[in-house]
Amino acid sequence: MSKIKNWYMQIYHKLFHLDDRLLLIIVGSIAGMCSGLAAVALRLSLEHVFEWLHPFRQYGWAFVLPAVGAVLSSFYLEKIAREGAGHGVPEVIYSVSRYGGLLRFRSSYSRLIASFLTIGSGGSAGPEAPVVMSGSAIGSNLAKFLGLNDRQRITLVGCGTAGAIAAIFNAPIAGLVFSVEVILGEWKFVNIIPIAIAAVAGTQVSHAIIPEQVIFNHIPFAVSYNDIFPSICLAGVTALISIVFTKTLRQTKKIAQKTSLSFWSKALLGGCTVGLIGIYMPVVLGEGYHFIQSMISGTFSMGVFVIFVAVFAKIFATAITLGWGGSGGIFAPSLLIGSLIGIFFHKFILLIFPNVEIAKEGAYALFGMTGIISGVMQAPLTGIFLIVEITGGYETILPLILVSSISSTMSHYIEPASFYFKELIERGQFLRPGTDERILADLNLGELIETGYDTFSENMVFRDFIEALKSSNQNFFPVIEDDTGVYKGVIQISAIRKYVLDPGVYDMIFLNQIMDTDVLTASLENGLQEVLDMMENNNMDTIPVVEHERFVGMISKNRILDLYRRELIMQTSVY
After folding, report:
1. Which segment of 211-225, 237-251, 386-400 scores lowest on mean pLDDT?
2. What is the rounded distance in angstroms from the CA atom of residue 268 to the CA atom of residue 252?
3. Which of 16, 415, 517, 527 maximizes the CB count within 10 A of its CB?
4. Does position 401 have pLDDT exceeding 60, yes or no?
5. Please, are residues 317 and 124 in contact by the beta-carbon 8 Å criterion?
6. 172 and 282 housed in the same domain
């Protein structure tokens, strides 16, 4: 046993004597492979349970299947894993922006189990967000196990995310782009290299187990200049649908939170609702990949009106699934909604202009998917590279860029915060690395307080105060009550000049007569931004800190600026 321990310690010390970037590449690759395994496990599990449950879909009671899955998923998250329902990506972003990517170990598997129960039973959600949560937690806990610092842990969270997305879609570039664009929010060279390698590692693990290179196959589309203007119009449509989808998701969740039903009752009601919709619109059940394939292939048989209804049925079903107790992501629903919008738009154009020569409806399904992904997430690069990689449709790159950029821009103009960020922004929890808010949030108010100030009795004669002043380098002198030590006020050198220059009053006045009792004070409960606002609004360079009526110390702008600069250098420096 001791030999094993010694061997482990030797490996450990050798690992940490490596160059920092090489260390992140090695550990990031491990995170990418583990995340890839988690993603593949969920994908294969869902395929098997879909196949097993398929014969039961023909029965009238099949509408309860999504309800059973939602109840089990909700019970598992609430009572066993002790995590809230939903998709989990905002929690990852919050952990990166506020806690250096610190995530619990159980998050590496809890969402996988919950989403398997939800999606496998027919719930309208995707497996991507749960694998993002799982991959992020794997990277975070690897960093914790190795004792890495916050910045290294954030990079490994990005590695886990990239490996998970790359594995679930067989799309390494999309995994890299999503991790950097959405999760980390900063394009730093030291992040990109480990994350890129982790994405490739996750893809290779997935490809070794599931040999298919692309999820959706298609015959190359003939895209011409005739498709440019329709693509621009489609981008506007997808932007509007993205806003509708986002707002429906948020409002449905708010309604569920205000409902007084128990968590399992909400899950039961929501699951039954989705199941009933699925009886008439099977396209809303599960992640819907096979429907997307049929739309890309041009074999989707629904009429124009039915497709239009299916778009909003899928939006509503997804909102009910995620808002009322189910667990899963919005990637797959966004892809399905986008492909439905694309072929609806194509059929509508041909209905109005029968002789127009444009690409096949499968190409417009790709354009629609890009538009919805980019609009909902407001991540245009993710939308472009994801669709290109999962379909191999490189011949459609120009319209994809147009649709993605226009849709994300319009969505941002109408709704400034994306679906992932909106809730965090409303709670004041969205803090990107390197920004003023993030740096100030990382500064501890306690370490800003300058202590060691001598306090003075309110009954001290001014002459005694002058004698103490001769040997003091303080500019502020807190005054306290004799018996209780309660803070009463403060004396500033600049405010007592007229008394200092008149020796005749030295024995005639006491400190309680000249102290300033109206000086604004801060508390340890105040946030740093709040303290700064107090100082700015009251034209103060220094503010006393008083806790439970006792003087604690002073906070100065100079001290804040000094620590701000140190933290800024630390957060923006290259490892």
Report:
1. 211-225
2. 15
3. 415
4. yes
5. yes
6. no
Of 427, 454, 471, the last residue of a domain is: 427
Closest CA to 318 of 513, 123, 508, 168: 123
Residues 261 and 181 in one domain: no
pLDDT at 3: 59
Cβ–Cβ < 8 Å for 263, 55:
no
CB 545 within 8 A of CB 521: yes
The answer to whether 554 touches 450, Cβ cutoff 8 Å, is yes
CB 511 within 8 A of CB 469: no
Task: For residues 193 and 258, state if they share a domain.
Answer: no
Same domain for 173 and 264, yes or no, is no
Domain that holds residue 566: 440-572
Q: Does 216 fall in a domain?
A: no
Question: What is the total count of domains within the chain?
Answer: 3
Task: Tell me the percentage of the chain whose pLDDT exceeds 90.
Answer: 16
Lowest mean pLDDT among 12-26, 91-105, 190-204, 396-410: 12-26
- 239 in the same domain as 200: no
Residue 523 placed within a domain: yes
Per the structure block, which two tokens stand in for 399? 């319209």
Structure confidence at residue 575 (pLDDT):
43
- The DSSP result for 47-104, as a single string, is HHHHHHHGGGGGSGGGGGHHHHHHHHHHHIIIIII---SB--HHHHHHHHHHHTT---
Q: What percent of the chain has pLDDT over 70?
A: 89
Beta-ladder partners of 522: 545
Among 427, 462, 492, the domain boundary falls at 427
Mean pLDDT value across residues 200-211: 87
Eight-class DSSP state of 252: H
Give the C-alpha separation, 169 to 178, whole Å. 12
* Size of the chain, expressed as the number of residues it contains: 575
Query: Do 421 and 444 reside in the same domain of the chain?
Result: no
Angle formed at CA 269 by CA 314 and CA 62, multiple of 5 degrees? 70
Do 301 and 423 fall within a single domain?
yes
Dist. CA 215–CA 493, nearest whole Å: 74
CATH code, domain carrying 490: 3.10.580.10
Which tokens belong to 237?
Answer: 């449509």
pTM exceeds 0.90:
no
Quick: pLDDT tens for 20-70. Answer: 778 888 888 999 999 999 988 988 888 888 888 878 777 778 788 888 888
Residue 324 burial class via C-beta count within 10 angstroms: exposed 0-12, middle 13-18, buried 19 and up: buried
Tell whether 161 and 308 lie within a shared domain. no
